[in-house]
Design brief:
alpha/beta; 6-phosphofructokinase activity; 42% helix; 322 residues; nucleotide-binding; Rossmann fold; binds 6-O-phosphono-beta-D-fructofuranose; four-stranded parallel β-sheet; single chain; PKF_sf; binds adenosine-5'-diphosphate
Length: 322
C-alpha cells in the first residue's frame, strides 16, 4: 500500500550537474514501484502553464552523464503569488498527481513549501552547485563545480609559475563560500576569500609579497563571488604591493559539463529516497545526506536555517598553503 499513486518531478532555479541523474532516479524508482510519473517542463513555469508530460523508462534514457536538465529550469515570478501557486496545484490535481519532487535550491524549496500547504505531497532534493542548503553535507552539482574550478586552477598555476605571477580566480556560490573553500583547499590556494570570514586585503597583499620574496613562484587567490568583484580586489591588492594579480572569472562554466561520479551517485540515491519517502506518506520534507546517511528534514526548518560554514577546513587550507 503506497500513500501516492502518481507523482511529478521538476527542476527549478539555477541548474546543476546531476539534476538529470536525479530526474532519472525519480522516474525509474517510481516506475519500478508501480507509480505513474510525470515530468514538468521549466520548473514552476511549467506547472502554471500545464506543461506536464507522462514519463516512461525511455524518457530518461542516456541522460545520467549529461549536465543541464532535460526538464529545463526557470525562475518564475508568477509562482511567488498565491494565484500562481493555486493554478499550479490545480494542474497537478486535475491529473490525479498527488506527489511532487522539486529539485532545486532554497528558493525552489520555498515553492515546494507553498504547494505542500495546498495539499500536494512534496519532497525537495538539493540541486545547486552552491552547497548552501542546510541539513545535507553536499548538494547535487557541488562536487562537479569544485572539480571544474580545481581543473582551471591547475592550468592557471602552470602559466603563473612560469611568470612568477599571482592569479585571482572568482568563483560562484551566491552568498556561500563553499565552492571557494573546497576548490581552494584542493588546489593549494594561498588565499581563500569567502563571505563567511572577515579579511584584510592589506595583509593578503603583504603575505603574497613575502611569499614571493621567499621563493614562491606563484600565488593563487580564490575569491567567492559573494565577497565582491575580482577586478576590484585586484586593483586594491596592487595598490598595496605593486603587483597586480591576473583575474579569471569562471562564471557559468562551473555549472556545465558531465557530472562527477560523486554527483551521479548522490543524485541517484536522493532521487530514489524521495520516491520512497512519498510512498511512505511523508511530505513537506527536504532530502539530504549527512555522514553518508540519507535523511529527510522538514522544509520549514531547512528554509529557515543557514548552513554552517566549515571553519576547520578553512583553517586547514590556511595552515597548508605556505
Ligand atoms: P534556487 O532554487 O536555485 O534558490 P531561486 O531562488 O531563483 O533559485 O528560486 C527558484 C524559483 O522558486 C523562483 O523562480 C520561484 O518560482 C520559486 N520561489 C522562490 N522563492 C519563493 C517563495 N518565497 N515562494 C514561492 N515560490 C518561490
Ligand atoms: O545558484 C547557482 C548560481 O550559479 C550561483 O552560484 C550564481 O550566483 C547564480 O546561480 C547565477 O545565476 P544566473 O544563472 O541567473 O546568472
Amino acid at each position: 500500500m503506497t500513500a501516492v499513486k502518481s507523482i511529478a518531478v521538476l527542476t527549478s532555479g539555477g541548474d546543476s550537474q546531476g539534476m538529470n541523474a536525479a530526474v532519472r532516479a525519480v522516474v525509474r524508482s517510481a516506475l519500478f514501484n508501480g507509480l505513474e510519473v510525470y515530468g514538468v517542463q521549466k520548473g514552476y513555469t511549467g506547472l502554471i502553464n500545464d506543461d506536464i508530460r507522462k514519463m516512461d523508462l525511455r524518457s530518461v534514457g542516456d541522460i545520467l552523464h549529461r549536465g543541464g536538465t532535460i526538464l529545463q529550469t526557470a525562475r518564475c515570478l508568477e509562482f511567488k503569488t498565491e494565484e500562481g501557486q493555486k493554478i499550479a496545484a490545480e494542474n497537478l490535481q486535475k491529473r490525479g498527481i498527488d506527489g511532487l519532487v522539486v529539485i532545486g535550491g532554497d528558493g525552489s524549496y520555498k515553492g515546494a513549501q507553498k504547494l505542500s500547504k495546498l495539499g500536494i505531497k512534496t519532497m525537495g532534493l538539493p540541486g545547486t552547485i552552491d552547497n548552501d542548503i542546510p541539513f545535507t553535507d553536499f548538494t547535487i552539482g557541488f562536487d562537479t563545480a569544485v572539480s571544474i574550478v580545481v581543473d582551471a586552477i591547475n592550468k592557471l598555476r602552470d602559466t603563473m609559475t612560469s611568470h612568477q605571477r599571482a592569479s585571482l580566480v572568482e568563483v560562484m556560490g551566491r552568498s556561500s563560500g563553499d565552492i571557494a573553500l573546497y576548490a581552494g583547499l584542493a588546489s593549494g590556494a594561498e588565499t581563500i576569500l569567502v563571505p563567511e570570514i572577515p579579511f584584510d586585503l592589506e595583509k593578503v597583499a603583504a603575505r603574497m609579497e613575502n611569499n614571493f620574496a621567499h621563493g614562491k613562484r606563484h600565488s593563487i587567490i580564490v575569491l567567492a563571488e559573494g565577497v565582491g568583484k575580482g577586478e576590484d580586489f585586484c586593483k586594491i591588492i596592487s595598490e598595496h604591493c605593486g603587483m597586480e594579480p591576473r583575474v579569471t572569472v569562471l562564471g557559468h562554466i562551473q555549472r556545465g559539463g558531465t557530472p562527477t561520479h560523486n554527483d551521479r551517485i548522490l543524485a541517484s540515491r536522493l532521487g530514489d529516497f524521495a520516491v520512497s519517502q512519498l510512498m511512505a506518506g511523508d511530505s513537506g520534507k527536504a532530502c539530504g545526506i549527512i555522514k553518508n546517511e540519507l535523511v529527510a528534514t522538514d522544509i520549514d526548518t531547512v528554509v529557515s536555517t543557514k548552513k554552517e560554514f566549515n571553519h576547520d577546513l578553512f583553517e586547514l587550507a590556511l595552515r597548508l598553503s605556505k
